[in-house]
Structure formats: structure tokens, C-alpha cells
Amino acid sequence: MKEFFGIIGGMGTVATENFVHTVNQLTETHKDQDYLDYIVFNHASIPDRTAYIFDHTKPNPLPLLQSDVEKLNDIGVSFIVMTCNTAHYFRSELQKASKAPILSMPNIAASACQTSTNKDSKVGIMATDGTISAEIYQKELIDKGVQPVIPDAHHQQLVMSLIYDDIKNKDFVNREKYHQLITYFFQTLDCEYIILGCTELSVAQEKEPYPSEYIIDAQNELAKYVVKHAE
């Protein structure tokens, strides 16, 4: 029997749409009834996660996220996913309010790295300032014996510009900027793998793909996990 699961999205909306599309594409179907059973809360008005991580006087996303978790539990979902890496800053608090398990996208992506890499391999992290500052991916990778690598301040600014200025604000993927960043991680930082640790970067890889099997798209890994466990 299929699992009925919940998706907390809207962080951002284009990335959520990309996740749902990926889940549907990965599901083997021959008729309507073959698709997975899920409900999407596209809660676009949830405050910016990175802004709050750096300044707790900013609007706090946690109460709205907790409300969504409670509603999904009332509906009776088997598990919950959040289509935002930075929102995992709040995951431990959210899990306290949820009977249904909340899947960890960073853990799933880091596990994919562990499977794909050798011990002490260097894995670059492309993510928001909030995700980097909270060490969401660094902790997961270190726990799995993999060496996390983060960009210098200049290149981190470029990552944020790609995420916020281009994709979130304009629904546009700057191919040159994205590919230059990937090249920087591989060539300058000598990374063996790169984790795309922001769902907007998953959009970038879909729309302007960088041809490499050594890019681990966290949202895509989550989608594969969901399809495997929900069917």
C-alpha cells in the first residue's frame, strides 16, 4: 500500500514545483492511479530562513512551520518532507511537534556522498549563507567521514546572488555564473564532489545543467528516497 506523505513547500515556490515534478518523473506510471499520494503546502509566505538565522529580530519561520507540521499530522500523513535545505535548521524543533517523521534532506544527500566517495574525500557545499553558517551540511558530512569544503567569501556571495538575485527574484538561471561556480569548486578547491545544498540550485542544475556525475543534487536525492519509500 502506498504511503501518503506531506510536502512543506513554498521556500521557494519554483523549487517546490521542481521537486514535485522530479517525484512524478521518477515514479513508474502507466495510469493515473500509479502516481504517489501526497499533499503540498506551498506556504510561500513563510519568512526567509537565512535572514532569521543571522538576525533573530527578523520574522521567525518556526511558528508557521510548526503550524504546517501540525496540520499534516492531523491529516494523517506517514512522513513529511521540506523542500528547503535552510529550513532544516528548525527540523529538530519541528520533529518534537510531529508524530510523523520529518525526513532530513541533508542527511539523505550526505549519505549519497558517503556511498559515492572514499573516506576523507573533499565535498564542496553550495548553499545559502544560513545553511553554511548553521553547518547543516558540514555536520552531516563529517559524521560520515567526508571532508566538507565551503567557498571563500567572494564565491559565497556569488552563490547567494545566483540563488536570490537570479532564481528567487527573477526565475532566471545565470548559466555563466552557475557553471563558473561549479568549476571553482572542482578546479580551485579540488573537490571530488559537490552538493547542491539549496533547492534553487536544483532548479539551476535542471535548467542549465553542468555535465558531471560528481554533482550531488540534494533535492533530487530526496525525491529518489521519497519515491523508493512511498511506493
From TrEMBL:
State what protein this is by name.
Aspartate racemase
> Keywords, A to Z?
Isomerase
Source organism (scientific name): Weissella jogaejeotgali
Superkingdom as given in the UniProt entry = Bacteria
Identify the InterPro entries for this entry: Asp/Glu/hydantoin_racemase, Asp/Glu_race, Asp/Glu_racemase_AS_1, Asp_race
Molecular-function annotations in GO: amino-acid racemase activity
Keyword Metal-binding found: no
Record's SUPFAM superfamilies? Aspartate/glutamate racemase
UniProt keyword Isomerase present: yes
**Similarity-based family:** Belongs to the aspartate/glutamate racemases family.
Pfam families with a match to the protein in the record: Asp_Glu_race
